[in-house]
Amino acid sequence: MATSYVLSSSSSLFLSQNDVGVSLFSSQPSRSIQIMQKKVSRKIESIMAPQRSARNPSMTGSVKTRMTMTEKIFSRASEKSQVNPGDNVWINVDVLMTHDACGPGCIGVFKKEFGDDAKVWDREKIVIIADHYIFTSDERANRNLNFVRDFCIEQGIKYFYDITDRSDFKANPDYKGVCHVALAQEGHCRPGEVMIGTDSHTCTAGAFGQFATGVGNTDAAFGFETGKVLLKVPPTLRFVLDGEMPDYLLAKDLILQIIGEISVSGATYKAMEFVGSTIESLTMEERMTLCNMVVEAGGKNSVIPADATTFKYLEDRTSVPYEPVYSDDQARFVAEYRIDASKLEPVVAKPHSPDNRALARECKDVKTDRVYIGSCTGGKTEDFLAAAKVFLASGEKVKVPTFLVPATQKVWMDLYTLPVPGSGGKTCSQIFEAAGCDTPTSPSCGACLGGPRDVYARLNEPQVCVSTTNRNFPGRMGHTEGQIYLASPYTAAASALTGFVTDPREFLR
Amino acid sequence: MPAIYKEPRNQALVVILLHASIFKPLRLHITGTEFFLWFSNSSYAFFFLWFSISSSRGFRFLSVVCSSSRSRHHQPFASLATSNVFNATKQRSFKPLISQSIVSSTSPVTRRTSVVAAATANSSSSASSTSFHGLCYVVGDNIDTDQIIPAEYLTLVPSKPEEYKKLGSYALIGLPASYETRFVEPEEFQSKYKIIIAGDNFGCGSSREHAPVALGAAGVTAVVAESYARIFFRNSVATGEVYPLESEARVCEECKTGDVVTIELEQSLLINHTSGKEYKLKPIGDAGPVIEAGGIFAYARKAGMIPA
């Protein structure tokens, strides 16, 4: 600031003085110095005041302003040495994802703006996934997938996870399932990179220490041609979670707790950074669940620093080199929240908002008509393992229809092959069958977002549903008057066993 | 010779004007009205009237010739390109006898080539418009994209004109029964409410671009909300379907569905004619240059990011 320059020009000795108006200048009794002294003393005060603006005196050499993880990714991707929150920059995209629901719109805009002969900027950086409206007889949905397929063939898109035989998903080797889980399982998520997707839950990939956010068709179409997107650098909210995770708690409870704390618009235009010993103890899939729902708090993206868990997960999944980034020690955060995970209890989000948080045990009088376990939030292998654990501990049958929708083909296979710890070698599917749940269905987004009328497990009546999905706004799963309680897989399984919203400690202690 | 001079009426006009330039020197930058008055004294008035009525381009052509400093017979026919210069300087007082839509074909609104969109948006949704007017529809906080356009309708592809139109008919159909007034009447494709007034976090939820598109297809010109969810805001700006404005006060509690409102962009004001109150709006901020350019593609072309 100008004030500091004035000081440095008068006397460098003064800078080290803490006391105001020390008579260092007593040997120079001239009035101008005294006036200078007075002026200077006021200026010292202003220097001591906490600095609120982002502007620092420019630094030289390799000393740069401390940046958060998100800011560092932005600066690397925009090829600038430094970025500040609020800057609008063009960043290079490493992976651009779209799916069968938004793909057609995206392709339409792309062709309109760049011509029918336009070619995408990089055939290997685009991933197109069939996952939203797959197992339906809706004509338009099927037509849309054909349209997307034609585009992929024409452009030579390397990663198109397609399905052609809808009657049997297993007959389609390319078919994966829910995009966000498929992206992770196929090794497209890498630390330090930029991922853009035409889906709000693209932020899930932040679990890998990358910048991942959702955009609309127009922005994605722009990215198709240029490989760039115009984004504003978000300031970061830091969440420090410490304490040992209780064995009745899952990452879903953590994020529901946080959203309930800051509200559905608490993180709008901001990045959410999760650090702490609890985070370090989470597996990759749990971290993905945590990052998945930041958009429900309005968040632009979420990041979790990459560590040994991340590298281990990526070992067999990708050979593309990556360079993780980490927040600087003195990086500036908008706010910091400290949470002691060991003190938390299972929570649910009551209708009709993800921030309508309540303790699961306080909702034990709420009768439920059905339970849905699935989606990118709660349909991964570990989510089903968790549900199986509760069914196993109880040994009883479910009292309400329980729908199981694995997120991807791989998850489906895990249900039928992986042994559940403590079960004596039984697989999830056997435990689910013994508990009377519905047979796990073909993997896709399913009824998380309602969709065409014939989608499996869609809420076609005004019923109450306990679900491991991510949103419960009116009509989310189909019927406008449907009541959706968002919960962790533990809570969902416990609720299935009693027919009421139930705290999983009823079975897990 | 350029095609324009081959048309017989243009050639007739040339003759008329040659006469005029020989017998009565024309003044510079004469307006159409003055020219007409002069002309009405001569028997060639009917030529003038007929010419200008039959083609507004012809009228501009006339204006060009009037403004040329030396109307020499072998040289006065300035190309149409200069007519733009003329029009630019005379725009305020010059009123062509034919009103012609001046929405350029590259504006993001007419990028959707639906006839319906062009018809409703011609005067109020182009990047250069300064006000929006109409009935308002009031909604509360946290209106998410599933309420704006439920997922079952996402199979409609916005870039297909018939499906774009259909999206409009489903706009805000996901609102719960507590909203007694329907936004779009059954069997209709457009809403009679042109402006939406909302509370906090409007457009939260999904990234589906179908949300602002459905509102735009239904005829909504602008939304005034207390705050927006970021993806919806981006999509509104990128597509140019609705103009997203932020209010300073909680206008969703002050206005009622059916109130007649006007939004004056230059003054950043929302005027509720029914209640007689005015509300300050926040400046558009960083999105301004993108909206003014006409959407993200036009903005990028201007910035040289993509070839024009």
Automatic annotation (TrEMBL), chain B:
State its Enzyme Commission number(s): 4.2.1.33
One GO molecular-function annotation for this sequence? 3-isopropylmalate dehydratase activity
Cellular component terms, GO, for this chain's entry? chloroplast stroma
Gene Ontology terms describing biological process = glucosinolate biosynthetic process
InterPro entries recorded: Aconitase/3IPM_dehydase_swvl, AconitaseA/IPMdHydase_ssu_swvl, IPMI_Swivel, LeuD, LeuD_type2/HacB/DmdB
What catalytic activity is recorded?
A: (2R,3S)-3-isopropylmalate = (2S)-2-isopropylmalate
Q: Domain of life, per the record?
A: Eukaryota
Aconitase A/isopropylmalate dehydratase small subunit swivel domain location: 192-245
For the protein in the UniProt heading, the enzyme class is lyase
**Which Gene3D superfamilies does UniProt cross-reference here?**
Aconitase, domain 4 (3.20.19.10)
UniProt keywords (A-Z) are:
Lyase, Membrane, Transmembrane, Transmembrane helix
| CDD domains for the chain | IPMI_Swivel (cd01577)
Q: Which Pfam families is this protein grouped with?
A: Aconitase_C
Which cell locations does it reside in?
Answer: Plastid, Chloroplast stroma
> Which chain regions cross the lipid bilayer?
36-53
* Involved pathway(s): Amino-acid biosynthesis; L-leucine biosynthesis; L-leucine from 3-methyl-2-oxobutanoate: step 2/4
What family is this protein classified in?
A: Belongs to the LeuD family. LeuD type 2 subfamily.
Fill in the subunit field for this protein: Heterodimer of the large LEUC/IIL1 subunit and the small LEUD (SSU1, SSU2 or SSU3) subunits.
Q: Which NCBIfam families match?
A: LEUD_arch
Q: Fetch the PANTHER family from UniProt.
A: 3-ISOPROPYLMALATE DEHYDRATASE SMALL SUBUNIT 1, 3-ISOPROPYLMALATE DEHYDRATASE SMALL SUBUNIT 2-RELATED-RELATED
| Name used for this protein in its record | 3-isopropylmalate dehydratase
Q: Which organism encodes this protein? A: Cynara cardunculus var. scolymus (Globe artichoke)
